[in-house]
């Protein structure tokens, strides 16, 4: 074996051998072998195909199979590549193929007994020079396909293949042969096909990228110039805003921020032009104060004009920021490209960089948003802003066609677009905080966390028999050493997370001292999370909690909302507030909270989807009995073979979970292919008890597996599923075991999410809804509204009307009942989230 240089310093390639004529792949490989060995590097695999080809494919390095037969791109990843290209009418024989590195990446160095570390920078530079020389010798090459991050860097100097994939970048390619002049070739960047085996969803992206070769070859690939109207005068900016309002065409808008302030707004109603109206750079204002006031008033008039159709990418961000920071309100968004793309392809990325590569021929440009600082060129940011709005408008036109073709346009405009401005309003309005109580919680739980940490350290010393032991409960590395080396505990693998701690606790080899340590760690984790996430969260200047609700937030269940802190860095996820944190959330003075929660909504949908006749009967009996019949007790009765009346009403009695609780936890988890070990962890049950419940559950309910199999077969056959409300799920990747859970859960979870979310806009769009009432929180299967006390019957009546509307599943109407609650004042007369009390007899208003 030829020794490779063990250095980060590149070897300057020798002068190109001009005397070696290249008329075949054999000639090329002989030249490569001579050159590489002269540089004391390993040559293990050469090139293949035709040296007269127009298209060259460059992989990163040969695999085992390629080394065996001395030919590139013929292993499993190569097989996938050529399969993708056949769809574009491109065959292996008409192309040239090679690798950047001509040796396998994992080889044994003479002094090493394990695979070599990632390739050194110096060696990579050598391979880069060799590759460029190799490509220069191809007389007819016009297009080079860079397969992977290292090839992207070698050919273009760019990094981050996730950003640049799908881009076509021109490079200058010279030739040592005087007959071949310096020329420009196009480099199409995409993933290494091998990457798709570990990340199956990237295969569809790889196919989309490769489809651009067809456009390049037939001359339809186009990146038309965009006119950047930047640094406009006050009058030019004002005229442009008025022109957009007078034209009545769809207008795309986008903002950029600097240091927590709105830096500029981009506007356009054309795909080849846009204006960036700057407000400030990092140091100064662009217009005079009166001019900026007038521009803001003109923008507010434009954006609040309900006759205008606005286009945006992630409108939630821009409209929430403008509304909260600048008091510039946007009436709504006609087409949000991010949300529309999520509806079409819920599993794919939805950022603008990805959409630009999917729907346009423009190369990646998103780095310009940050590069302007390094170059001290604010105009770069303004041009970036213009390109964003022009590209977004172009993308919107194409996505709208796709929505119509997929017959999803009605669902988008009647549901997705209707919900978005309501969620924006919820964020801008926020929820008032009891700041005194919040500070009290911060102090109390800070002390409790310190105390809990001390308990962890003392129990760890006892378990280890070492009075000098010091342990950081936040360090997985230290905990791993303590668990698996010092204490010799046994779990599944070496994780120290809550799930594996539960397994370790259930292991019969775990002694009581170790169990005490695990209990102390669980207690510390709960208190530390509450302290850092909730008690120590940051309020906005007006003393309110806020979050950003995300319509694209739950990939496994599109339709369900998620939430996080706001885009300006305050707030937190308001959907998972534990009961002890809810007293901090209070209604505005003179207002109260009304709440509804859908009763077992997902389980009800599963009953009808799987046609579980006994469940359908039990759920209907529970709905029509006025709350006197409990479907969870009925399930426990069947599951454990005991009379219904002998099943406890409670979930927890004298320190033990009841059979009702076990049945309820089975229903919530085992409907979606959860295994017994996972049930034990999520339900807090011993593994043996969870395993028995698992076996009983599936013996009682064979319909579940029949439904699973039918759903998987339909997804495999059609590669598409539709929820009862019309939302689409598309199978884009190869079907794998970990894909099956999301396939099964899609219909019940997405339907539940869409159903609860639509109640928000249906209520607020109803003319009977009080003008000063508003929804303030979504908590998965529940919503909370704030209103004046005298409006309670109307608010709750509308909630019940829309929450209990039918959903048709397998041609049967399914009505899920809603449980209601109303806040009552505490001793100080304050209405809190924590003071919600259940209400009976809520009457629904009649439909209009």
Q: Assign the structural class, choosing from mainly alpha, mainly beta, alpha/beta, alpha+beta, or little secondary structure.
A: alpha+beta
Count of individual domains? 5
Based on Cα principal axes, name the global outline.
globular
Q: Give the count of helical stretches.
A: 30
Kindly report the spatial arrangement of strands forming the biggest sheet. 1-3-2-4-6-5
Largest beta-sheet details: 6 strands, mixed
Distance between the termini: 84 Å
Helicity level: 40-55%
Low-confidence stretches: 1-7, 12-16, 108-117
Would you tell me which CATH topology of the largest domain applies?
Alpha-Beta Plaits
* Radius of gyration, in angstroms, nearest whole number: 31 Å
Q: Tell me the name of the CATH class of the largest domain.
A: Alpha Beta
Notes on the protein architecture:
The N terminus is likely disordered. Helix 14 crosses helix 16, helix 15 packs antiparallel against helix 16 and helix 24 crosses helix 25. The longest helix is centred in the middle third of the chain and has 30 residues. The chain has five domains: 194 residues, Uracil-DNA Glycosylase, subunit E; 180 residues, 2-Layer Sandwich (Nucleotidyltransferase, domain 5), CATH 3.30.420; 101 residues, Up-down Bundle (Taq DNA Polymerase, Chain T, domain 4); 201 residues, Alpha-Beta Plaits; 88 residues, no CATH class. With 848 residues, it is α+β, with helices and mostly antiparallel strands. Helix 12 links the parallel strand 11 and strand 12. The chain has 30 helices and 28 strands.
């Amino acid at each position: 074996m030829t020794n490779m240089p063990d250095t980060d310093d590149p070897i300057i390639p020798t002068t190109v051998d001009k005397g070696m004529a290249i008329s075949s792949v054999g000639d090329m490989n002989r030249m490569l072998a001579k050159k590489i060995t002269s540089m004391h590097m390993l040559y293990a695999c050469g090139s293949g195909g035709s040296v007269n080809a127009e298209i060259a494919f460059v992989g990163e390095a040969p695999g085992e199979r390629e080394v065996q037969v001395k030919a590139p791109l013929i292993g499993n990843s190569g097989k996938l590549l050529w399969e993708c290209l056949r769809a574009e009418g491109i065959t292996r024989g008409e192309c040239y193929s090679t690798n950047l590195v001509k040796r396998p990446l994992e080889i044994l160095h003479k002094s090493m007994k394990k695979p070599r570390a990632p390739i050194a920078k110096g060696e990579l530079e050598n391979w880069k020079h060799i590759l460029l020389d190799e490509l220069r010798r191809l007389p007819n090459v016009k297009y080079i396909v860079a397969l992977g991050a290292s090839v992207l860097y070698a050919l273009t100097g760019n990094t981050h293949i996730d950003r640049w994939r799908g881009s076509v970048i021109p490079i200058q390619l010279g030739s040592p042969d005087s007959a071949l002049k310096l020329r420009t070739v196009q480099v199409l960047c995409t993933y290494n096909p091998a990457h798709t085996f570990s990340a199956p969803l990237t295969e569809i992206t790889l196919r989309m990228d490769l489809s651009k070769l067809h456009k390049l070859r037939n001359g339809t690939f186009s990146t038309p110039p965009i006119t950047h109207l930047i640094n406009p005068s006050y009058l030019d900016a004002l005229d442009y805003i008025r022109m957009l309002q007078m034209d009545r065409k769809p207008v795309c808008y986008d903002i950029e921020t600097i240091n927590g302030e709105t830096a500029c707004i981009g506007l356009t109603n054309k795909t080849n032009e846009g204006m960036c109206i700057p407000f400030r750079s990092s140091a100064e204002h662009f217009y005079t104060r009166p001019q900026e006031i007038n521009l803001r008033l003109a923008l507010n008039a434009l954006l609040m004009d309900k006759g205008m159709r606005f286009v945006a990418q992630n409108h939630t961000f821009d409209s929430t920021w403008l509304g909260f920071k600048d008091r510039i309100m946007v009436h709504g968004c006609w087409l949000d490209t991010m949300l529309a793309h999520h509806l079409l392809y819920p599993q794919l990325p939805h950022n603008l960089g990805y959409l630009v590569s999917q729907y346009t021929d423009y190369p990646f440009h998103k780095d310009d948003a940050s590069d302007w600082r390094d170059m001290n060129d604010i105009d770069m940011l303004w041009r970036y802003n213009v390109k964003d709005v022009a590209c977004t408008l172009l993308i919107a036109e194409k996505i709208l066609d796709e929505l119509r073709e997929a017959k999803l346009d009605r669902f988008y405009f009647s549901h997705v677009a209707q919900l978005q401005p309501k969620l924006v309003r919820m964020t801008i309005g926020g929820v008032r905080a009891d700041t005194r109580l919040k500070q009290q919680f911060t102090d109390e739980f800070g002390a409790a966390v310190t105390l809990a940490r001390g308990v962890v350290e003392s129990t760890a010393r006892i378990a280890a028999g070492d009075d000098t032991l010091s342990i950081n409960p936040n360090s997985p590395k230290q905990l791993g050493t303590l668990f698996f080396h010092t204490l010799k505990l046994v779990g599944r693998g070496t994780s120290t997370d809550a799930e594996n701690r539960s397994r370790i606790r259930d292991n019969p080899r775990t002694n009581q001292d170790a169990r005490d340590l695990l209990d102390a760690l669980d207690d510390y984790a709960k208190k530390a999370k509450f302290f850092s996430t909730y008690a120590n969260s940051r309020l906005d200047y007006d003393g309110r909690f806020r979050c950003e609700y995300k319509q694209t937030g739950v990939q496994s269940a599109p339709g369900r909302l998620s939430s996080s802190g706001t885009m300006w860095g305050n707030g937190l996820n308001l959907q998972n507030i534990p009961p002890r944190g809810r007293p901090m959330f209070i209604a505005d003075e003179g207002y109260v909270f009304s709440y509804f929660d859908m009763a077992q909504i997902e389980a009800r949908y599963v009953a009808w989807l799987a046609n579980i006749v006994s469940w359908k009967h039990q759920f209907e009996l529970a709905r029509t009995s006025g709350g006197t019949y409990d479907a969870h007790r009925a399930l426990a009765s069947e599951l454990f073979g005991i009379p219904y009346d002998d099943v406890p009403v409670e979930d927890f009695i004298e320190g033990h979970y009841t059979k009702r609780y076990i049945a309820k936890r089975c229903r919530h988890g085992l409907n979606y292919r959860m295994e017994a070990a996972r049930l034990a962890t999520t339900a807090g049950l011993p593994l043996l008890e969870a395993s028995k419940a698992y076996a009983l559950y599936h013996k009682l309910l064979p319909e579940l597996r029949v439904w699973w199999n039918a759903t998987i077969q339909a997804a495999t056959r059609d590669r598409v599923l539709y929820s009862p409300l019309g939302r689409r799920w598309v199978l884009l990747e190869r079907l794998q075991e970990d894909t099956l859970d999301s396939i099964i859960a899609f219909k019940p979870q997405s339907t539940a999410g869409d159903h609860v979310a639509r109640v928000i806009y249906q209520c607020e769009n109803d003319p009977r809804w009080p003008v000063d009432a508003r929804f303030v929180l979504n908590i998965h299967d529940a919503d909370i509204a704030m209103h004046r006390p005298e409006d309670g019957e109307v608010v709750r009546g509308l909630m019940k009307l829309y929450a209990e509307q039918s959903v048709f599943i397998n041609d049967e109407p399914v009505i899920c009942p809603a449980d209601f609650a109303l806040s009552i004042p505490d001793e100080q007369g304050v209405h809190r989230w924590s003071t919600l009390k259940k209400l009976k007899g809520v009457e629904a208003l009649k439909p209009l």
